[in-house]
Amino acid sequence: MTKPPRDEPNVMIATEVLTRAAEVIKCLGHPLRLRLLEALEPGEKSVGELQEYSGASQTAVSQHLGSLRARGIVDFRRDGTHVFYHITEPKVTAILKCIRRHDLADGDV
After folding, report:
1. What pTM, to 2 d.p., does this model score?
2. 77 with 84: CB under 8 angstroms?
């Protein structure tokens, strides 16, 4: 017997998976957090680069990165005095792709 593809609607999702997904989605419920994650999609960035990309204050960027890190969505590495963040939660890329696919009108980039 062949198993249905994992993305089929008739496949029941385990409670633990739904719980983690809810945590991630809840944490992504802020436009600045989504913007920071969008900036991190291609690879790691410094806090300064994230601040420049988002247009937000360093304090706001740091606070939101702290929330994302506390939930295991991003992590960081230090290089001297610089801190570089990167995405650790694979769902983030799929969520951003979904937003682009469903919420951007043609030419709405």
Report:
1. 0.84
2. yes
